[in-house]
Write a structure and sequence with these properties.
Helix content is 24%, strand content 30%. The chain has helices at residues 2-15, 22-25, 166-180, 186-189, 206-217, 235-245, 285-296, and strands at 30-42, 47-52, 62-67, 82-89, 97-106, 133-135, 140-141, 150-156, 192-198, 228-232, 249-252, 255-261, 264-268, 274-279.
C-alpha cells in the first residue's frame, strides 16, 4: 500500500498535478510555500511525513513524505509540531521534491495529547543566561544592561534573503521600536528593550549591524537604538546563547554566504527569567509587545 501511495505521489509530481505542467518544469526548480503538521519523522533517511495544507498552484491538502536535507532540522521536528517551509520541485532531479527553509511555527497542536515535550522549550521560568556581546555602537553589553526591563531577544544575520526569516524578525522588532517612540507610549518606552543577536560574526561587524538596523528603522527615523539594539559576539559565545534557546544554524554547504537556520524569539521578564520562547515567524509586533507588557504586570 505504501509503495502504491508513493508511486501515486511521484506520478502526480512528475505529471504536473494541480495545474503544474511537467514540460514547463523539467530541469528547473519551482518553489511553493507550504504549511503543515508533522505526523512522523524518519531521521535516518531524512524524511518527514507531513499533513500539509493546500499548496497553492501545485496540489491539494494531503499527507506525504518529504525529504529534508538540513541536519539541524532533526533536532527540532517531532510528531505534532506545525511547520512552514518551501517545497522545492524539480522534475529533473533525482528526488523531484524536497523541503527547504523550514520554520517551526507551533510546538503542539491544540487538541493533541501525549505529544513529547520538546526540551528546547523547557527554559521558561529559568534565569536567562548571561552573555558578552558587542552592540551596533561598538559597546560591550551583558544581561546586566537589561536588568529590570522586559527584554525581547531574536536571532538574525544581515545577509539573510528570506522574507519569512530574518527579514520578518527585523521588521517586527523595528516596528515595535518605532511604536514605542510614539508619545502615547512614553510610559512603557523605558521599560521595554529589544535585542537582535547575529550568528554571523565574520560578516556582521558592529558597524554593519548599525547600518542594517537603520535600514529597518527607516531613512527618516532618528538613529535611536535606545529600545532596539543589535549585537554580535564570538561564534562560541553566540552558540552558547543559541543552544540554550534551542536555535539551530549551520552554514549552507552550497552557498557559504548563507545559513540554514531555525527561528527563536525570546521574552524575558524584568526579573531576568525566561517568560516565553516563540518558535517560527508566526507572530506579530503587537503580540510581542503584549507578551513583553505582560511580564511588567507581574
Amino acid at each position: 500500500m505504501k509503495k502504491y501511495f508513493a508511486a501515486l505521489i511521484l506520478l502526480a509530481l512528475s505529471a504536473g498535478f494541480a495545474c503544474t505542467k511537467a514540460d514547463e518544469n523539467k530541469g528547473a526548480e519551482k518553489r511553493y510555500p507550504m504549511k503543515g503538521k508533522v505526523i512522523s519523522v524518519d531521521k535516518e533517511n531524512k524524511l518527514a511525513k507531513i499533513h500539509h495544507e493546500d499548496i497553492e498552484g501545485f496540489m491539494d491538502a494531503m499527507t506525504m513524505d518529504f525529504p529534508i536535507k538540513s541536519d539541524w532540522v532533526w533536532d527540532e521536528l517531532r510528531p505534532g509540531v506545525q511547520v512552514q517551509a518551501e517545497m522545492v520541485f524539480n522534475s529533473a532531479a533525482k528526488d523531484p521534491y524536497w523541503l527547504e527553509n523550514i520554520a517551526i511555527v507551533a510546538t503542539t497542536v491544540e487538541g493533541d495529547e501525549n505529544v513529547e515535550v520538546n526540551q528546547k522549550f523547557a527554559q521558561v521560568g529559568n534565569p536567562a543566561p548571561d552573555f558578552k556581546l558587542t552592540n551596533q555602537d561598538g559597546k560591550a553589553i551583558t544581561m546586566a544592561d537589561f536588568k529590570g526591563k522586559a527584554l525581547g531577544i531574536t536571532f538574525i544575520y544581515a545577509r539573510c534573503p528570506l522574507a519569512e526569516f530574518c527579514i520578518k524578525m527585523s521588521t517586527n522588532f523595528s516596528d515595535v521600536a518605532l511604536e514605542l517612540q510614539k508619545p502615547e507610549q512614553s510610559e512603557i518606552r523605558d521599560k521595554v528593550r529589544l535585542l537582535s543577536i547575529s550568528f554571523d560574526p565574520e560578516n556582521d561587524t558592529p558597524a554593519k549591524l548599525r547600518s542594517y538596523g537603520l535600514g529597518y528603522l527607516g531613512k527618516d527615523a532618528k538613529p535611536d537604538f535606545s529600545v532596539w539594539s543589535l549585537a554580535v559576539g564570538s561564534d562560541a559565545e553566540v552558540r552558547k546563547i543559541a543552544d540554550f534557546y534551542g536555535l539551530r544554524y549551520e552554514i549552507d554547504p552550497e552557498d557559504k554566504t548563507q545559513f540554514r537556520h531555525s527561528l527563536r524569539t525570546i521574552v524575558i521578564g524584568p526579573d531576568g527569567k525566561v517568560a516565553k520562547v516563540i518558535p517560527g515567524s508566526d507572530w506579530t509586533p503587537a503580540s510581542l509587545l503584549k507578551d513583553l507588557e505582560a511580564t511588567l504586570a507581574k
